Amino acid sequence: MAQASIGDSEFDRGTAITLREPGVYDAQLSPGWTIMNVANGGYLLALMGRALGDALPHSDPFAVSAHYLTPSTPGPAVVRTVTVRTGRTLSTGQASLFQTAEDGREVERLRVIASYGELDALPDDVRTAAKPPAIPPLERCVGTDVGPPPPGDFSMLDRLAMRIDPATVGWAVGAPSGQGDMRAWFEFADGRDPDPYSLLLTVDALPPTSFDLGLKGWTPTVELTTHIRSRPAPGPLRVAITTRNLAGGFLEEDAEVWDSADRLVAQSRQLARAPRE
Amino acid sequence: MAQASIGDSEFDRGTAITLREPGVYDAQLSPGWTIMNVANGGYLLALMGRALGDALPHSDPFAVSAHYLTPSTPGPAVVRTVTVRTGRTLSTGQASLFQTAEDGREVERLRVIASYGELDALPDDVRTAAKPPAIPPLERCVGTDVGPPPPGDFSMLDRLAMRIDPATVGWAVGAPSGQGDMRAWFEFADGRDPDPYSLLLTVDALPPTSFDLGLKGWTPTVELTTHIRSRPAPGPLRVAITTRNLAGGFLEEDAEVWDSADRLVAQSRQLARAPRE
Fold first, then answer.
1. Are residue A82 and residue A143 in the same domain, yes or no?
2. Where's the Acyl-CoA thioesterase-like C-terminal domain (chains A, B) (predicted)?
């Protein structure tokens, strides 16, 4: 099978949008990017990012803030965008994704404000003080196809080739570390290289840190803000997520994405509901 | 002078809003909360947070995402809010702040999506792994009235009683540490205790980390997302801000706010433009 490429891949097909009229895009939410039959939040973000990239005069997401309202399911969807402001180096837009309920009403799934620019126009001075995560080499990490099969539908995992740091995968065998960390190598199963849109998916693609904290159950995202800081180099990404503030029934997940050139290409933080114990 | 209180203070008067019609609030941007004659981003966020708190069925900001479009100046402003979704424990709203230009057109200054809940209804289990910042006792920290007066108008500093960690104030005497940190004790000059709305100001009130990196000039905020995790206890707050990814003409600032009860009451991250050298 020929290796997929940016523009021709499962991710591109899954996040494809069709212009219906200025600012309005039709999409088909794919059953291939779900967890427990709910569309993954990062997948939705990438799809909406594509729509805003088409609607706005600047090409690349720089800061994307999303508030999740109701769960999205596979099937038709429409993205309605609004141009909020266009500037010389940055533009800002807003987008909402809707799906039609059985009674015919449109129900909003998530709402996004995002500021876009041109990543390739940025100066190349890099004074990043942060260091890449300490994660073992890819071949020493654990594929998501190892261990007991997850309960229920995790179809998105079939699209990805993630390999999790053994230090953060104890939960899969009943021995969570309790630290609230998750680290993994991230690639697409079909070999597609990363790009700014796929980074929007990557920040929300790993198992939740709640697993490493010994909690059972998923952590629905309330809000997710992602910064895209550089076009990622080809090749595998390293993702490191930490939770330091599990309290009052909520937790935050801080994600960093590093590319093969050791650039910190994306940073995100989400607020999520902790599972009820 | 009687100590100010929540509801009767410079901060409350400066962020006051008046309902004009459902969802629409008039405000007067105060010259007392500016830096270089531009309204401080956290001040604007707090003002808009107050409007959304009135418009939405839930009382307290949980996650507030703001994209800054054009600088705001002292004078009249209008906040237009939209209720996006109301749920049992969370509601989501959107708000825009406008000022009228000389030609009579409304110009949007910033746009916010925010999810609100009831902080007092949260369970009190706290498993926060993060630790309060290592900052010297308040009396060993440096008031902002010490050292050479800042160039230009910094009126907001008169409303605050900030005391900066000596380790992060070297820039004021030409010796920045180069680390990209800023730490300070935060109080209001009139003694008002903190509350969820004032936390929205606090996360953007400290001098920019760019000073500690040895950069000259301000770092305009592109986007700022704040999580409010707990109603703060009365008394001084400790604020710790770090920048780890200065690259390509942008930088992020991660802020943590800790209250007198050692709770991590707020976390934020902003994307800002680095000063041109």
1. no
2. 149-272
Domain that holds residue A261: 138-273
Whether A106 contacts chain B with CB within 8 A: no
Residue B180, pLDDT score: 94
Does residue B175 sit within a domain?
yes
**What's the pLDDT tens digit per position in A147-169?**
666 666 778 999 999 999 999 99
Q: Please indicate, yes or no, whether residues B111 and B190 belong to a single structural domain of this protein.
A: no
* Angle at CA of residue B65, ends A100 and A219, nearest 5°: 65
DSSP B135-159: ---GGGSEETTSSSPPSS--THHHH
- Does residue B183 sit in the same domain as residue B236? yes
* Stated pTM of the model: 0.96
**Paired tokens of B22:** 């459902």
Considering only residues 144 to 163 of chain B, which have any Cβ-Cβ distance to chain A shorter than 8 Å? Answer: none
CA atoms of B74 and B47, how far apart (whole Å): 13
| Residue B8 contacts A, CB cutoff 8 Å | no
Residue pair A204/A44 in contact by the 8 Å Cβ criterion: no
Q: Does residue A127 lie within any of the structural domains?
A: no
Q: Is A92 on the interface with B (CB under 8 A)?
A: yes
Q: Which of A179, A227, A246 sits opposite B252 (nearest CB)?
A: A227
Does residue B237 have a pLDDT over 80? Answer: yes
What is the complex's ipTM, to 2 decimals? Answer: 0.95
pLDDT level of residue B118 (50, 70, 90 thresholds): very high
Which of B52, B70, B85 should we substitute to test contact with A (largest number of A Cβ atoms within 10 Å)?
B85
| The predicted structure's pLDDT at residue A145 | 78
Mean pLDDT of B67-89: 97
Among left, alpha and beta (phi > 0; psi -120 to 50; other), residue A129 is alpha
Alpha-carbon span B170 to A225, nearest angstrom:
32
Q: Do B250 and A62 touch (CB under 8 A)?
A: yes
Both tokens of A200, joined, read 């929007």
Q: Does A269 touch chain B (CB under 8 A)?
A: yes
